[in-house]
Amino acid sequence: MLGGKWKLLLLWFLSEEPRRFGEIRRCFPEITEAMLTKQLRELEQDKLIHREVFKVVPPRVEYSLTDLGSKFFPIIEAMHDWGEENLKD
Length: 89
Hints:
Layout: H1 7-16, E1 19-20, H2 21-27, H3 33-45, E2 49-54, E3 60-65, H4 67-86
Antiparallel strand pairs: 1-3, 2-3
């Protein structure tokens, strides 16, 4: 469910506030657009994020954490804190 290089980072970024695809793309310039789309779709299928499409021109898509994703966030935060404490140079 959370395998891969990008999913935890994406969940962390989405925990702050809902984000548009372009914002996510700019924040992670190393990820290809195809890989970003794939990772977001997998997180959506796993019900960790919600994708909302706004019926405007041009189309606007926004991603946010679901309740399940929000419940998982403290685990991500604990992993971050552990890394900060134990993986110093």
